[in-house]
């Protein structure tokens, strides 16, 4: 299980790096700027979580694999820049998978340090969403998360559901997949609805 | 004494959460965004202080009470949105109490780690003022602290005065209240003057 | 060698403080705002590096000398505000020396914690460039580093070259000066070229 999380975590980093790179290219940053924004988007959430927990190493400092996949994601986005409009749906899926997995991983890390349930959910939201907040601060925008509550609300609901499962001792195997699935389904429903419901903000992620 | 600081620290968090929520609502953020900005405003200063001191837990990670009071402050601000204009004076008082207490707490934490006096004062200013700086960065403004020197200057003066008292061994009981009172009085005098002196900036906190 | 690095590191802090103060004054911040921006510009990179490495003290928390030289740099910039236009070339030199030294110091710190080479280079870039990024976020600009790739690219090349030297056991004395010289020469060439090549951005550092 630990190993599966590791691999999907790396896939999540790859996907978030692409998301960061796209936003940076939209701002016409140079290649190196695109790389930095991709990096920050991918590791920002987990980094803040690991900084906040005393005695825990920053995850990417001790494992350079993340760096390589993030670099790959940024280069991928730059090379296939023109085609990514078509890939938009797949991107959203990856981004949502990233949010779902990073939320659950964040909650899990909090639990492994015996922290209070509320704190664990906050760490889940930070892990899932802070990368995107950092990205928006870097490119000098009001963070999207502050203008579309759904993104983080979905993360809170998923994290809370995971805590509930853990509290009632449903810790093994398949149970960890339920909150992940819940976040993905909720987010996709929300995004699908957004297509029909006009937003009061013109921002698009 | 320790206990009194704890309770007033929580009251300070409550007050700063309200201040953060008001700024966020002024930017028309959604409820969740308001909650996040309130949270960051309330814990930002103490969090950065605890990150900078190696071997010290982040204060709210190990004590969820702060979270509950911050949540309460944000909800309070959203519910009584219309009436808060009337409460403006009380708010300023709470905000100032927060600045005063967080400054002294920050200096104290530095002293308890045997740090240099200058560093202790810097930690006091960070604890008192960085929450507001984070708030302004999040909502994409030039931090108010950079446009009204008084806020942080008052914090420096209060922190320096506290160091002076400690240096001359005036550590017990009542002496800790003197710099708190000094900060509160100075800030209120300054704000009262601002009512009569037109500022060159149109910003209002 | 250790001692030489220490003194030049302090000179680097002094120079970066001046650079930060100039940007802040350009934004018409008050004296205290200028001081804070100077401080953040000078210590931002090394602080983030030390936060990211578990078990390492923040360099300026345990050594107040940095603070005094940064304070000196900010006051110097405020006093000689009018003459600094003439000093522009010297400033660029100091800023470049700061970038070069902080990059090498950052890589070195990573190596001393037995970190992966890629991570060491990233820590070098963070140490050299994050101070400027923080400065730009504080004054609400898109960080200059994202609009002029050269700054950080030069840092990466210098850090990579240093790693190469270390890998082939060229660790002693004079060898550490080579990447520093490389970064300085590259940056100055690049800046000299910029005078003739019009940039697509109107930003100037």
From TrEMBL, chains A, B, C:
Alphabetized InterPro entries for the sequence: Gly_transporter
UniProt main location, coarse: membrane
Glycine transporter domain mapped to chain residues: 8-81, 93-166
Positions in coiled-coil regions: none
Annotated transmembrane regions: 6-25, 32-52, 58-79, 91-109, 115-138, 150-168, 174-192
Pfam families in the record: Gly_transporter
Compartments reported by the entry: Cell membrane
Protein origin, superkingdom: Bacteria
Alphabetical UniProt keywords: Cell membrane, Membrane, Transmembrane, Transmembrane helix
GO CC term, one of those recorded: plasma membrane
Membrane topology of the entry: Multi-pass membrane protein
Family that this chain belongs to: Belongs to the UPF0126 family.
Protein name (record): Trimeric intracellular cation channel family protein
């Amino acid at each position: 299980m630990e190993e599966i999380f590791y691999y999907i975590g790396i896939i999540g980093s790859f996907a978030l790096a692409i998301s960061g790179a796209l936003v940076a290219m939209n701002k016409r940053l140079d290649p190196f700027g695109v790389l930095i924004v991709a990096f920050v988007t991918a590791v920002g959430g987990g980094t803040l979580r690991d900084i906040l927990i005393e005695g825990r190493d920053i995850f990417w400092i001790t494992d350079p694999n993340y760096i390589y996949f993030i670099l790959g994601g940024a280069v991928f986005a730059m090379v296939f820049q023109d085609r990514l409009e078509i890939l938009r749906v797949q991107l959203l899926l990856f981004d949502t998978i990233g949010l779902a997995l990073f939320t659950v991983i964040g909650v899990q890390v909090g639990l492994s340090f015996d922290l209070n349930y509320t704190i664990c959910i906050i760490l889940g939201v930070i892990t899932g969403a802070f990368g995107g907040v950092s990205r928006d601060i870097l490119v000098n925008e009001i963070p999207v998360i502050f203008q579309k509550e759904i993104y983080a609300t979905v993360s809170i609901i998923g994290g809370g559901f995971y805590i509930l499962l853990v509290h009632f001792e449903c810790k093994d195997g398949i149970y960890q997949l339920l909150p992940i699935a819940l976040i993905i389904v909720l987010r996709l429903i929300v995004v699908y609805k957004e297509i029909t419901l006009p937003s009061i903000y013109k921002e698009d992620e």
